[in-house]
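Summary for the funding panel

The consortium committed to producing paired sequence-structure records for every protein in the target list. Below we show the first two records in order, beginning with the earlier of the two.
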Amino acid sequence: MAETTPNHLFELSLDRESIDNLTETARWGKFLAILGFITIGLLVIFSFFIGAIFANLSALSPYPSTDTGAASGTLGVFLTVIYLIFAVIYFFPCLYLFRYSVRMKAALNTNDQTKLNQSLKSQKMLYRYVGIVTIIAISLELIFLLIGGVAKLFLPH
């Protein structure tokens, strides 16, 4: 038979040291999130410039060729897309960190348990997102290493 007691054995409380630590993490988190948003903006702007630079690269070549123009244009579009994908991937951790920081500061200033819970949920989402992206990145690296190793076996020396 299931017990109907609460999930916890005791209530946690925030003492002065905990509040000070959380206040400082909220400040640093907000600072880092804002820097992240600025970086994302610069990344998006730069993505279009790098695409245009590579698209026009054939005009700067001392050996003009029709193949160079098509290749550099394709590379420019590819780099633009890659930079935009990185900007989107980087946006969500910055957003979760910003939400954590703003909500934590509000929770501590107003002694609001709901805002504290929302803040901690944003922190959880940040860690979950970074963990999933890390797992995906490691998996892709292992796949590329495996493909490279198999290709090395079958390619002529």
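The next record, for a separate protein in the list, is shown here:
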Amino acid sequence: MPFSSLSKTERYQIDPDHTYPSFEADHLGGLSKWRGKINATEGVITIDNDNLTGTVEIKMDMNTLDFGHEKMNQRARKKDLFYVEKFPYAFYSGTLIFKDKAPKEISGILTLRGVSKPLDISIEEYKCIFHPLRLKRACGADAYASLKRDDYGIDYGKVFGFKMGVDLRISIEGIRTRN
């Protein structure tokens, strides 16, 4: 007699060496785009493939903001932008939404600069394999969302015509841990 209700939830530790939230934002009302990433993340993803449920918990170290330009990195950490001295971390917590037996979206909350707002993230690619070097199951995804930075209290440049829209892209990998 099968016990389908006794499904096993898999737990994945986010691999900080292969997980990078990145973003793209306007500079001077369309003059150019600034692209950056957050170099240090940690967290956990759970997946229950039998019941098609799961969760995502991510912590991002805002001290590791990286635009590839040190002066911009320092500028972005100041009070009128990310205010990293007071808000050193951003957090994302959500629930996986499955379609066709695979996670396709995350319905969650982004906390940035001390402000928490709903943010749904679209999962554009998703794959799980047996990792040939770690000798464990690994899952990875490429995810995308758009947000308005002024919703999170980051409205620097708005008066000069800067657009407030930000495209967020997250490349993420997780390594299965013991349950």
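Regarding this second record: Helices lie at 70-76. DSSP finds one helix and eleven strands in the chain.
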